[in-house]
Amino acid sequence: LARRLSHSGAAPARPSFGIAFDIDGVILRGRSPIGGSPQAIRRLYSEDGTLKIPFLFLTNGGGVPEQKRALELSEILGVNISPAQVVHGSSPYKELVNRFENDLIIAVGKGEPAAVMVDYGFRKVLSIDEYSSYFKDIDPLAPFKKWIVQQPDNKNLMSEKVHPSYDVFEERVKGVFVVSDPVDWGRDLQVLCDILSTGGLPGSGRGDQPPLYFASDDLEYQAAFPSERLGMGAFRIALESIFNQVNDHQLKYISYGKPNPFVFKNAANILEKLAICMHPSSLPTKEVEEHRFSTIYMVGDNPKVDINGALKAGPPWSPVLTRTGVFRGKDNDPQYPADLVVDTVEDAINCILEKEC
Ligand code: G3P
Ligand code: MG
Prior knowledge:
Structural class: alpha/beta
Largest sheet: 6 strands, parallel
Strand content: 15-25%
Shape: elongated
Strand order of the largest sheet: 5-4-1-13-14-15
Bound molecules: SN-glycerol-3-phosphate, magnesium ion
Radius of gyration: 22 Å
CATH class of the largest domain: Alpha Beta
CATH superfamily of the largest domain: HAD superfamily/HAD-like
Distance between the termini: 25 Å
């Protein structure tokens, strides 16, 4: 990373600012770049392609390992994004690896949720697709579904020949991690209610709820469709209200992602490390505890999530709101006012560079 980020010529001064970009509704809609994002992001690099301004992507999305997302973003934006510059909603899950050392855990969501968890260091992971496929009739609606659930290696999970990697009929699930937006809500709500109500063994009697984690709590987000789409927070509400109806106790869970202030603290630390890699001479004598930026801009489209989070995190965070996603207002958001409101991410970068450089 240091080699890729370091400057080959005379060392310029270390920038006194960093930038965190939200992805959905700011950089992309679906997989398509928006708001002039490719050319705007390129302005943060020198002509030789090395990073000039410390920045990262701080998204509540996910579903693929950060390394893979970095490659996808590099391709879409035409610059070299390092995995260290990608923070997903699920990224803090890696801090929980020791807690679930040899425990069977279930990974939920679009993309490759199990691969994400294995990449973080978890050892016994099954995706909810794979897990559900071993329990005959667990989803009474499965025969009516027109699609066939497949693993990334194209093993047909509906096939009789597939055997579980773990004894799922004996071994209790010890943790459930919602990594990215769930795909088959109906099946997932049913199977998660089973796991969470029975102490981790569908079909058995009632038992203690295993820990449940959500990578974020976005009610809505901006995808390719013109109006907002229901996000992980909407799924959480559905699961929570159903669980609370079918049990005589409340669902317990922890949600990560923006607007939690610790997400912003972690992002500030990553930006600090990036800045040190770009300018090794700026390494402080003691361990990095505090960032040394005078401003860190959070460029986001969702007032409740991105702007609220940056406001809660406080200085040096400075929120910038774009009009390419959830927010479409003319002026500022009344509840979570940003320091700056612009049309696009390109306008945001132009304003930031004009002010700072
Ligand atoms: O599923 C993604 C969504 O919840 C938010 O993504 O990039 O706007 O934080 P982002
Ligand atoms: Mg967004």
